[in-house]
Amino acid sequence: MISLAFSIGAMLKDDCDVKKLASCEIMGGANNICSDKTGTLTNNKMETVQMWCGKDIKVPVKATSETVDLKSLGISEKAIELLKCTISNNVPEKCGPTDLAMTTLLERAGVDIASVRADHQSDPFIRFPFTSGRKRMSTVTKHNEKELEAGCYARIQIKGASEIVCRACSHYIDEQGNRQPKNDEKFTEIRGKIQSFAKQALRTVALAYKDIPKG
Known about the structure:
This protein is an alpha+beta fold. Helix content is 33%, strand content 19%. It contains seven helices and eight strands. The strands form three sheets. Strands 3-4-5-8 form a four-stranded antiparallel sheet. A two-stranded antiparallel sheet has the order 1-2. Strands 6-7 form a two-stranded antiparallel ribbon. β6 (171-173) and β7 (179-181) form a beta hairpin. α3 (77-89) crosses α4 (97-108) and α3 crosses α5 (113-120). The chain is elongated and about 75 Å long.
């Protein structure tokens, strides 16, 4: 209700005109006003403000700091590499507010997104785009020489709805960036973290990967 009052005040200040004068007669008796929130109550802009990488991570908003040092936030080097690769390779050409919030975080951290993509581009290029049914985007990437693991030649990077992605995972990344088996207790903790973010009116997105063996 406060947001709506501020919004109406802003509209008056901007000299917004009433198109139908007859509507003015009943405005004083209105109990509820329904409006499209985007552009009225919100700016249709999002920003990454919080993460869980084995522990809670608070991200300073752009208004307080232009650049972000991911290491100083307590994110392990292994987790940073996963963030860089998974986000960079799972962003469509036309970014929506959610994707833009994640790529902006990488740019603030000094990541060259185009270079990361080129370094991991698979041949042929394989991507499963986001759909309302799948609620996730998946892209196959190649391992570079530095990351090449025994027996694996490629990796599928996944970004999508938190509960769906987490439910499909058999492991999680801990505070040190190491891969750990996910048990019922840990799954309950992660699910509780997702719900905690949602209660703060935050949109939650999960990142995951799976290594693909040769053949």
